[in-house]
Amino acid sequence: MTLRWPGSAGGARLVYRLLLAVDLERYSRLDAQQQLAAQTDLRGLLDGCARRTGLRTSGWYRQPGGDGELVVMPVDVDVPRVVGVFARDLERALAELNRHRAPRLRMRLALHHGTMIEGPLGPAGDAPIVVSRLLEAPPLRDHLTEHQDRDLVLVVSDTLYKDVVGSGFCALNPADFVKLEVVIKERPYSGYIHHTGRVPPKRRPFSLPAAG
After folding, report:
1. Could you give the 3-state DSSP secondary structure of residue 38?
2. Which letter does DSSP use for residue 73 in this model?
3. CATH number (domain holding residue 37)
4. Dmax over Cα atoms in the chain, in whole Å?
5. Per-residue pLDDT tens for 152-201?
6. 162 Cβ partners below 8 Å, 6+ apart?
7. Would you say residue 2 lies in a domain?
8. Taking a C-beta distance cutoff of 8 angstroms, is the pair 107, 22 a contact?
9. Strands (DSSP E) along 55-202, which ranges?
10. Which domain holds residue 135?
11. Would you say residue 8 lies in a domain?
12. Which of 17, 106, 119, 193 could form a disulfide with 124 if both were Cys (CB 3.0 to 4.6 A apart)?
């Protein structure tokens, strides 16, 4: 699938977009039928939340990954609305789904606003790397493991927190976030985990090996 930017005349050009990445917890432990149900429920959750919050999924570039999805939002998306209203609605919808679901569906959600270019296999550039690293960061995984009462844990990049969450135009309270710092493949990444007033996760740096 080739990524086509709205209004693009073709060819690679640098663009600035909001990216959303989501990953399901313990997906590999499910059997084939359970994995299919999890994929169906995840797509339904994302589409339902988009519809309720006034987002047009027809303008999304979607890169499924089996146990998750990478979404590149269109240029005119309301960024504070996605970060605040959409993310909060997704957590509520997931909690409602899990009232009638076994096993529970639990997930990590990462958001970042940055630069990328169109590539033959999907988006390339810094932004897709940043949102992927934050999604896979050990502190975020630990937070979901440590807070079994939660079905979704959100992390936003450092720049997105400063520009959007701290702006006063986002539905999420800046005080309900805790700093995340991680080093992966010798590069530092930082963001903020939304802890919604609960005891925040441990603030400690992680360093992963460069290989792999």
Report:
1. helix
2. -
3. 3.30.70.1230
4. 49
5. 999 999 999 999 999 989 999 999 999 999 999 889 999 999 986 544 44
6. none
7. no
8. yes
9. 61-64, 68-72, 107-116, 152-157, 177-184, 187-194
10. 15-207
11. no
12. 119
